[in-house]
């Protein structure tokens, strides 16, 4: 049953963004505690690496499938289920005495994470329908950098109580938000029509819009994570004499992406065409990648440009989230389209770091910068030439805002 939607979408949006932030904390706790987990459980690096890659592998393999389940189950129930899975699996991981249970719990967390981050924006798009969903979806896109920065800042204090403290805090936060969503999120009916799951899957896989969204998020994530491989080198050049300072600087750089997310959300909400915002953001990111990798700069300046890169590239996710509902090939395939888009994000996450390592081994940082720039320029081409049902314009996003609000 569908209840009346709230007068303003923002209270529910902020609740759902909070659920996304809690989900991002589950991603960030593993790198923050990796060394402590290795020491406590005597895990070799080959096993410990799975704590980092479990989420990416789940997303790369099952994104669209989990999106289809969310469409059939209903976005609200899928979000609650995803948060409950994260909470229970994080608690199981906190009690693990060996690597098998801990890694298994991370895989289950990954399923819950993907369910939550596919369902939440679909729910936001529904409750903000007709009142401009671009702003709320732009706010949603801040969930990952905010959650990652939050756990990086909090981890030094939590690790004083051992690595399990991060898992217990993650569990408690996910379960609390599952209850909050169950009590306060608007009710939205699950999809009910004659379209079969197989037909929706086929339509989504073959539609140009979802394919473009997958490619764009894959190129964005691959370039972002590849370039941020430079960050440890910058920090080792004297900016981070202690691990706590390194964590703080890393959190600053990642958190800068949230500023870009808000900027992108504001641009789209005030009339910027998504294709134009995407093209300009990717183009500027290509230039910045080349400068960061090749210019003769000191470590502080290089780090500053990495922060600027995070802000500029942060415009991309809100533009993609805002575009996703209109690119769905069927009203009941919004979750599947978002799942396909997130599948691209995870493919980039999985492929970006190895590609960066290969480029660096072959030609050093100039080769890495060229590779990141090439990925960004390929994304410009996808956004400009392939994204359907979008006015093709390379005017600056802010120029249309000025024109529309005179």
Automatic annotation (TrEMBL):
InterPro entries referenced in this protein's UniProt entry, alphabetically: MFS, MFS_dom, MFS_Efflux_Transporters, MFS_trans_sf
Gene3D superfamilies: MFS general substrate transporter like domains
SUPFAM superfamilies: MFS general substrate transporter
Domain of life from the UniProt record: Bacteria
Transmembrane segments: 48-70, 82-104, 110-128, 140-161, 167-190, 211-235, 247-270, 277-297, 303-321, 364-387
Topology within the bilayer: Multi-pass membrane protein
Keyword Signal annotated: no
Stated name of the protein: MFS family arabinose efflux permease
Domain Major facilitator superfamily (MFS) profile stretches: 12-391
Species this chain originates from: Diaphorobacter nitroreducens
Cellular localization per UniProt: Cell membrane
């Amino acid at each position: 049953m569908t209840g009346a939607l709230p007068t303003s979408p923002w209270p529910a949006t902020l609740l759902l963004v909070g659920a996304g932030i809690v989900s991002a904390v589950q991603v960030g706790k593993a790198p923050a505690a990796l060394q402590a987990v290795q020491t406590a459980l005597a895990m070799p690096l080959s096993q410990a690496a799975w704590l980092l890659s479990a989420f990416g592998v789940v997303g790369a393999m099952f994104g669209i499938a989990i999106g289809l389940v969310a469409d059939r189950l209903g976005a609200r129930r899928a979000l609650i289920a995803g948060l409950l899975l994260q909470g229970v699996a994080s608690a199981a991981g906190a009690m693990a005495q060996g690597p098998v249970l801990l890694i298994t719990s991370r895989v289950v967390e990954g399923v819950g994470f993907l369910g939550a981050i596919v369902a939440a924006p679909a729910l936001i798009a529904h409750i903000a329908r007709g009142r401009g969903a671009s702003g709320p979806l732009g706010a949603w896109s801040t969930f990952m950098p905010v959650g990652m920065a939050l756990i990086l800042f909090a981890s030094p204090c939590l690790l004083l109580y051992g690595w399990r403290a991060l898992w217990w805090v993650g569990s408690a936060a996910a379960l609390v938000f599952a209850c909050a969503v169950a009590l306060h999120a608007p009710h939205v009916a699950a999809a009910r029509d004659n379209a079969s799951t197989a037909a929706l899957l086929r339509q989504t896989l073959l539609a140009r819009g979802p394919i473009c969204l997958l490619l764009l998020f894959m190129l964005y994530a691959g370039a972002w994570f590849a370039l941020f491989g430079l960050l440890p080198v910058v920090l080792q050049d004297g900016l981070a004499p202690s691990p706590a300072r390194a964590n703080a600087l890393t959190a600053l750089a990642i958190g800068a992406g949230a500023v870009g997310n808000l900027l992108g959300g504001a641009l789209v909400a005030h009339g910027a065409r998504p294709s134009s915002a995407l093209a300009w953001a990717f183009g500027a990111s290509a230039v910045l990648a080349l400068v960061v990798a090749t210019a003769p700069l000191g470590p502080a300046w290089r780090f500053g440009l990495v922060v600027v890169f995070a802000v500029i590239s942060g415009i991309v996710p809100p533009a993609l989230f805002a575009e996703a509902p209109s690119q769905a090939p069927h009203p009941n395939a919004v979750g599947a389209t978002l799942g396909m888009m997130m599948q691209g994000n995870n493919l980039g996450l999985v492929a970006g770091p190895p590609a960066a390592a290969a480029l660096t081994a072959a030609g050093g940082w100039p080769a890495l910068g060229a590779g990141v720039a090439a990925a960004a320029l390929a994304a410009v081409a996808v956004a400009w030439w392939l994204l359907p049902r979008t006015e093709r314009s390379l005017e600056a996003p802010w120029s249309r805002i000025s024109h529309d609000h005179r």
